[in-house]
Amino acid sequence: MIDFLNDAHAFLPMLLRGLLVTLELTVCALSLSLALGVVWVVMGRAGFAPWRWISRSVITVVRGIPIIVQLFFIYFVLPDWGLDLPPFVAGVMGLGLAYSVYQAENIRGGIGAVDKGLVEAGEALGMNRVTLWRRVILPLGLRHALPSIGNTMVMLLKDTSIASTITIAELTREGQLLAISTFKNGSVYALIALLYLAASLPLGALVKTLERKGRLA
Amino acid sequence: MIVLDGVTKRFGDRTVLKGVDLAVARGEVLCLIGGSGSGKSTILRCINGLERHDAGTITVGGIRVDDQGLPAIRRRVAMVFQRFNLFPHRTVLDNVIESPVHVHREPVEQARARAIELLARVDMADHAHSLPSALSGGQQQRVGIARALALRPEAILFDEPTSALDPERVGEVLRVMRELAQDGMTMLIVTHEIDFAREVADRVAFVDQGVIAETGAAADVLTAPQQARTAQFLARVLHRNG
Ligand SMILES: Nc1ncnc2c1ncn2[C@@H]1O[C@H](COP(=O)(O)OP(=O)(O)OP(=O)(O)O)[C@@H](O)[C@H]1O
Ligand SMILES: [Mg+2]
């Protein structure tokens, strides 16, 4: 125990730096995944058939490929085609893209829960399709989707560890480096696990609150 | 002002409007009464294009209700819903300025000032910054009326505006509607409030199985209906209302 506390004292600064990167990665990838998720949903409902076709194809393809392969593709293959991205950007893009298909599912569900009467109220007030989506369907749909978006965010937080494979100095990679150089696997991985827990438990609580609020609304 | 001529509407293989002829003059208050499922809501919803009618013509102020005319129609005709349908994520004030600002691009300050006036008119100015969920049904419906007025409509369609209210809240909404009628607003009202219709309506139309079965001056239709089915309906409703 004393050993562990000593290790913790020695390793925490580096691990906390890693955790910060993990959180940054989570927030950035989350934003991208939501933005893309909205795009897939809106395209999926477009009147113009090719838009719907693109949306459906992207979702099928992205859903069918492991996240780690998507990351490798963006980080190792795109440079061959002249697109050389810094690791962090590649990580955000890969995770954001991979998670956008889950977000699309969440958002679709949320939109399905929007009261039809409110959409009709918007129509009766003269809103065109774009205004209706911007002012009524998306804000209310996202609200309904918040609990499931929160769940997805917890999964995303944990899956940012995959970004360790493309040299991003997030929590898992910082830990690996420590473990390799100190051979203290036990202490290091225990600390990593605790830090992930410490980050995801509050998120889980937030989701619970959102679900409660969602039921009240 | 609003003219329906031989309007039919099908849902799947059910024909729910079977040639509706109806005219509402400018400044007139016309109440639509009729049994459940007779097609009253569908008539209103066809007028502002929430449903697309299959045959016949509908015009509002001479403009035809079709793809081309619809934006203009929705500027001229507002709707008040049975279940209020206020946007739950916006305050009372934001509900009222929603259409002026975000559809018709009025300056926000000007729209706000007018919204406050409209809210005062329905006696809801004190609640401008509340969310709809904090209000009673009667209060929400009065905001619904203010939101409709914000369009500066030439006519307002009401679909059972008091049916979802607690009995003690009905009066406050009817009072607002009575004032609108006195101010000369053109109103087409679906209602089961026979007493209100008798008092406020210029004319009453009785809808039965997708047609206008009888129409005439409110006093005539409600006290001395010409048709047996109108009489039956009235007997039922009046009996239920006690
Ligand atoms: N979207 C729809 N799809 C299928 N059938 C519908 C739809 N809307 C209405 N109907 C049917 O059309 C008929 C007329 O409905 P409408 O809502 O106009 O009646 P109403 O006179 O307003 O009745 P109520 O007093 O119950 O509101 C009903 O039988 C109803 O079931
Ligand atoms: Mg109805």
Structure description:
The complex is a heterodimer of chains A (217) and B (242). Chain A has a single domain, classed as Orthogonal Bundle (MetI-like fold), CATH 1.10.3720.10. With 217 residues, chain A is mostly helical. The mean pLDDT of chain A is 92. Chain A has 8 helices and no strands. With 242 residues, chain B is of the alpha/beta class. Chain B is built from 9 helices and 10 strands. Chain B has helices spanning 40-47, 70-76, 92-102, 108-121, 137-149, 167-182, 194-200, 218-223, 228-241; strands at residues 2-11, 14-24, 29-34, 55-60, 63-64, 77-80, 155-159, 186-190, 203-208, 211-217. Chain B has a 6-stranded mixed sheet, sandwiched between helices. In chain B, strand 9 (203-208) and strand 10 form a beta hairpin. In chain B, helix 3 (92-102) runs parallel beside helix 5 (137-149) and helix 5 packs parallel to helix 6 (167-182). Chain B is globular. The relative contact order of chain B is 0.17. Classes of the chains: A mainly alpha (217), B alpha/beta (242). Chain A binds chain B through residues 115, 117-118, 120-128, 131, 135-136, 139-140, 143, 217, and chain B through 48-50, 71, 74-75, 78-79, 81, 83, 85-89, 98-99, 102-104, 133, 147, 151. The structure holds adenosine-5'-triphosphate and magnesium ion. Magnesium ion binds at residues 40-41, 159-160 of chain B.
Helical content of chain A, roughly?
over 70%
In DSSP terms (H or I, runs of 4 or more residues), the helix count of chain B works out at: 9
Strand order of the largest sheet of chain B: 6-7-8-3-9-10
Q: What profile does the largest beta sheet of chain A have?
A: none
Q: For the record, give the distance between the C-alpha atoms at the N and C termini of chain A, rounded to a whole number.
A: 48 Å
Strand content of chain A: under 5%
Radius of gyration from the alpha-carbon trace of chain A, in angstroms = 21 Å
Q: Which kinds of small molecule does this entry bind, naming each only once?
A: adenosine-5'-triphosphate, magnesium ion
Gross morphology of chain A is flat
Instruction: Note poorly predicted spans of chain B.
Output: none
Q: Give the beta-strand count of chain B.
A: 10
Mean pLDDT across the residues of chain B is: 95
Radius of gyration of chain B: 18 Å
What structural class is derived from the secondary structure elements of chain B?
alpha/beta
Query: CATH homologous superfamily name of chain A?
Result: MetI-like
Beta-strand content of chain B: 25-35%
User: How many domain modules of chain A?
Assistant: 1
Kindly, what is the distance between the CA atoms of the first and last residues of chain B, rounded to a whole number of angstroms? Answer: 36 Å
The CATH topology label of chain A is: MetI-like fold
